[in-house]
Amino acid sequence: GVPSEPSVVYADGTPIPRTFAHAVARRAWAERYDCRWNANDVLVVDNHACMHARQPYTGERVLHVRMLT
Q1: Span 38-57, mean pLDDT?
Q2: DSSP symbol at 65
Q3: In sequence order, what are the residues at sequence separation of 6 or more whose Cβ sits closer than 8 angstroms to the Cβ of residue 21?
Q4: Is the separation of the CB atoms in 16 and 6 below 8 Å?
Q5: Most CB contacts within 10 A, which of 11, 23, 40, 43?
């Protein structure tokens, strides 16, 4: 098969070694904080200070986003 382009690269386009990328991903997963949501909860995330994501969920949700600079 044809080798694929690397999916993780430095700003100059140089590929980041997969072993390093996987180590960073494992560390991020180990350091995660799972927020347990209740009705009317509010979460504020500083995009300059942390990474954020979400886990799969079921059911309905309403999401209101406000971006502050």
Answers
A1: 84
A2: -
A3: 8
A4: yes
A5: 23
CB of 25 closer than 8 Å to CB of 51: no
CA dist list (Å): 33 to 3, 5, 9, 24: 36, 32, 26, 16
Q: Please give the Cα distance from 61 to 37 (Å, whole number).
A: 11
**For 12-47, how does the pLDDT look when each residue is reduced to its tens digit (9 = 90+)?**
999 999 899 889 889 988 988 888 888 888 888 888
Instruction: Give the phi and the psi of residue 10 in degrees, each rounded to 5.
Output: -75, 170
Q: What's the token pair of residue 14?
A: 């140089």
